[in-house]
Amino acid sequence: MNITIWNEYRHEQQNEEVRRVYPDGIHGVIKQFLLEDGFESVVTATLDEPEHGLTDEVLNNTDVLIWWGHIAHDEVSDEIVEKVKRRVHDGMGLIALHSAHYSKVFRGLMGTNCGLEWREADDKEILWVVDHTHPITQGIDKKIELDIEEMYGERFNIPEPDELLFISWFTGGEVFRSGCTYKRDKGKIFYFRPGHETFPTYYHKDIRRVICNAVRWAAPVGV
Ligand code: ZN
Questions:
Q1: Within a domain: 171
Q2: Domain, as residue range, for 85
Q3: Percentage helix, strand, coil, to 5, in the chain?
Q4: Measured in angstroms, how far is the CA atom of residue 195 from the centroid of ligand 1?
Q5: What is the CATH number of the domain that holds 25?
Q6: Whole-prediction pTM value?
């Protein structure tokens, strides 16, 4: 199975606070824990590379694409966005993390604006598992607790998910559909909320478990 991790990779280069948490980039941390979990073919791609690192060759060889973007969604070329969307329809799995809800790729595949409420403060987040039968929630007990995260709240303007796997609660009382699956033609999509760039969320063992599970689930059948 070939996995490509796409990261905008701007916060880490521009912001000392983010660099302290993710010195090798968010993509670097995700790559490391995927390798530790037994995945063998993991490559990374970033916005400022030619074709954003997503050449035809890379895309055609990718079984599952992980996407993290935030401040530069508009800088992703429409041509590449179309190619990514086509590959998803063709069977490539897509894991959209955190602020990727606003990426052109995710919005395009959803067909809605994917707007939401948000607050950058010091909220605690509890992600409650609402489907214990799903491959993506295996290894997680009742909930995942994150001591500090950015708040995303409803209403999240997405189409009704095929499957809802997690609902988040935040200190402010807000709730959010944090783990949602979709199918688009032959491709499987998982949206997973946590992962604000200033917090060490991608070092949390349960968050890692969910992402590793999601990669296996999203892979095209037979890979
Ligand atoms: Zn954020």
A1: no
A2: 2-112+178-218
A3: 35, 30, 35
A4: 7
A5: 3.40.50.880
A6: 0.98
Does the pLDDT of residue 193 top 90, yes or no? Answer: yes
Q: Which of 140, 152, 134 is nearest to 204 (CA)?
A: 140
- Assess whether pLDDT exceeds 90 at residue 223: no
Print burial letters for 18-47: b (CB count within 10 Å at least 16), e (below 16).
beebbeebbbbbbbebbeeeebeebebbbb
CA 197 to ligand 1 centroid distance, Å: 6
pLDDT per position as a tens digit, 20-60: 999 999 999 999 999 999 999 999 999 999 999 999 999 99
Q: What are phi and psi of 54, to 5 degrees?
A: -110, 65
> 187 in a domain, yes or no?
yes
Q: Give the Cα separation of 22 and 199 in Å (integer).
A: 9
Angle between helices 25-36 and 205-218 (to 10 degrees): 80
Q: Is 102 a domain residue?
A: yes
Tokens representing residue 112 in the block:
């809605």
Ligand 1 centre to CA of 152 (Å) is 9
Q: Within 13 Å of residue 66, how many CA atoms lie on the same side as its CB?
A: 29
Residue 104 in domain = yes
Number of domains into which the chain is organized: 1
Chain segment 132-186, per-residue pLDDT in tens: 999 999 999 999 999 999 999 999 999 999 999 999 999 999 999 999 999 999 9
How far, in Å, is the centroid of ligand 1 from the Cα of 131?
25
Longest Cα–Cα distance of the chain, Å, equals 46
Interatomic CA distance for residues 163 and 43, integer angstroms:
28
